[in-house]
Amino acid sequence: MFDVPGPPPVKDDAPTREQWLAILGSARSTTLQPGYWDLLAENSNQWAKEVSISPFWEAAKTELPKWSAEFYARTGGPLLPTLGLPSFVGKGAEGIRSKSHRNSLSAYRKKKISDWAGLWPQSGPSVPDINDLVRVRIETSYLDGVQFLADKLERLASNKSVPCKAAPQGKLEGYFAYHLYFKHAFLFRVLGEGDKIQIECEIQIATTLSTRVWDVSHGGYELWREEPGSAADWQWNPKDPRFIARQLGHMIHLADGLLVQLRDAITKEKVKEP
């Protein structure tokens, strides 16, 4: 491990992003090369195209009509609001920089890494250990469709010998979703040459309602994670966007639950009809 000096794992002494980039560059010189972050983004976009037509994802597309029919037979409602599964997307250069910084601070504080560059390999392709360089978000019509689809995809991955793990998300900030992570082999391309690498890909599954809230609030979450402040700064101020976004996230989650109850009640009434 490189002997790179860094501040102690105390929040107030943590390096700013600019300071962190300098520390990172002293340990992993490739990150200082012109266009490095853009190159990561270009590779991420290419990997997203490849995993979107991978055997696992093609199998999921084939199985989706059966899963949808099963869900409808069980609940009387559609699994997805649209036909088909979306394609994966790659993370942009700014997103990679920002998440790398946050992850490094978190991992260093938790003593999971011994220096600020610990998320970067010491040899091989210079790609940070981020679990959503390649990701896809799937919207379900109902809240119970989230875990239903997650279970189907996890079982399919197991049948295809694709290592996959589920990570249900329920955060105080009002974010509710199911995340699945699986490994996929790619080439990290630089000037036409390619090195083999394994990347963890992310599948996010959430309801349409919660996705709309997340789409609007996501930019704010990014800012607040950079400058989190204290809960007291916003919890008693209804004009603070953090108050609105976080409370709205919980309200939408409740609404999703009520929609499931309403759907089930209507389905039962239809069954009673002669």
Protein described:
α2 packs across α4 (93-109) and α6 (208-226) runs antiparallel to α7 (241-272). The radius of gyration is 21 Å and the shape is globular. The relative contact order is 0.13. With 274 residues, it is α+β, with helices and mostly antiparallel strands. It is built from seven helices and five strands.
Biggest β-sheet strands, sense, barrel: 5 strands, mixed
The stretches of 5 or more residues where confidence is low (pLDDT under 50) are 1-12
- H/E topology pattern: HHHEHEHEEEHH
Q: What Rg, in angstroms, do the CA atoms define?
A: 21 Å
Q: Secondary structure elements and their pairing?
A:
Blueprint: H1 17-27, H2 36-52, H3 55-75, E1 89-90, H4 93-109, E2 134-140, H5 144-159, E3 164-170, E4 176-190, E5 193-207, H6 208-226, H7 241-272
Parallel strand pairs: 2-5
Antiparallel strand pairs: 1-2, 3-4, 4-5
Helix pairs in contact: 2-4, 3-5, 6-7
Key descriptive features of the protein:
17% strand, 274 residues, alpha+beta, Beta Polymerase, domain 2
Give a quick summary of the entry.
By secondary structure, the chain is of the alpha+beta class.
